[in-house]
Write a structure and sequence with these properties.
It is a single chain. This protein is an all-alpha fold. The protein is 56% helix and 0% strand. The chain is built from 18 helices and no strands. The radius of gyration is 33 Å and the shape is elongated.
Length: 348
């Protein structure tokens, strides 16, 4: 209402402004000008803008400049004026989004959060206790409880079971089950993050490397996921994931996973640029054209390991439209690593 009264007073003020000396009074718009053409939309702010321009500045009292610090409080020394550093120049093509794709659900579980501590899971933990009493276990009951819980729900079940019965739920399932059934239930109880980290350790232990496990866990992950995976790997095993991967691999595979683990790919929130897609398509063609050996693998790695999943989908589509051949078949023929073929197959 305050704004409405101000607009009214401003319009009234502007209507009483006399015309300049020597100029006749202008007739109303409708009497002087022909009707506006069809489709013309008058500017609804023109009259208010004129009123603003003619409003006397005296109606706004001068504001004191903020130059002095607050007066000193009791028992506290005077505060010095705050200094702010100069802003850097804006470079739009280098600025990352202010937000990033969040981690996978279950990757950022806080055991002290109300979602974990205050969730009522009494029915679930009592049913698990009943299913594991005596000789053997009720597998159907365990499946009905553990297979339906999302990561937050599972974390709450695990926490409250241990708190009430003083037994780690994961160790209980290890004692009560075996084989692949045990592996599946333990993986569910651990949650996605711990399961992925332990799979990575399994892939790197012993003689040789289980690259299929590395591919399943690391390929196509967001920067947020990769950073959390590396931190959790160090927390559990007191080792660096980057160093373990580097020591276990060699040649192009080692360089490929080094790029992936740098967690420096384009975020999924990054807009897909048509110009960038075309540039990448041409670079991939140049790196693999007519080559069964001697492919410029690093050029291919640098593109496919640093682009978001959305960008890779756009690149694969544009490549097939331009060269009438799928990008995954080109990569397979060029004898590149299987992970790229799997990545492109997943994005298509």
């Amino acid at each position: 209402m305050a704004n409405a009264s101000f607009y009214g007073s401003a319009q009234q003020h502007s209507s009483h402004v006399p015309p300049p000396q020597g100029q006749p009074q202008q007739p109303p718009y409708s009497a002087q000008q022909p009707p506006p053409p069809t489709g013309y939309q008058p500017n609804p702010f023109a009259q208010n803008q004129q009123a603003y321009a003619q409003q006397p500045l005296a109606c706004y009292p001068p504001q004191p400049a903020y130059q002095q610090p607050y007066p000193p409080q009791s028992n506290y020394p005077p505060q010095a004026p705050q200094q702010h550093p100069a802003q850097q120049g804006y470079q739009s093509h280098h600025v990352q989004p202010a937000y990033q794709t969040p981690p996978t659900i279950g990757y950022a579980v806080d055991i002290n959060s109300p979602q974990i501590l205050h969730r009522n899971v009494t029915r679930e933990i009592e049913a698990i206790r009943e299913a594991t009493k005596g000789w053997g276990s009720d597998k159907k009951a365990l499946i009905s409880i553990l297979a339906k819980a999302d990561p937050l729900h599972m974390a709450s079940i695990r926490y409250h079971y241990g708190d009430r019965f003083h037994t780690d739920l994961k160790e209980l399932i290890r004692k009560e089950t075996k084989g692949h059934f045990q592996d599946a239930l333990v993986s569910l109880i651990q949650g996605p993050l711990e399961s992925d980290v332990r799979n990575l350790r399994q892939a790197l232990e012993g003689i040789g490397t289980k690259e299929a496990l590395l591919n399943d866990v690391l390929v196509g992950r967001t920067n947020a996921d990769l950073q959390i995976i590396k931190a959790e790997y160090r927390r559990i095993f007191k080792r660096s994931l980057e160093e373990d991967v580097s020591n276990d691999l060699s040649l192009e595979t080692k360089r490929m996973f080094a790029i992936i683990l740098s967690a420096n790919k384009a975020d999924e929130t990054t807009e897909v640029s048509g110009d960038q897609v075309n540039t990448d398509v041409l670079a991939l063609r140049q790196a693999t054209k007519g080559k069964l050996v001697g492919t410029d693998q690093m050029a291919v790695f640098d593109i496919l390991c640093r682009r978001s999943n959305g960008q890779i989908r756009a690149i694969a589509f544009a490549y097939e439209q331009k060269y009438l051949r799928s990008l995954d078949k080109m990569i397979s023929k060029a004898c590149l690593h299987e992970m790229f073929w799997r990545t492109l197959a997943d994005q298509s």
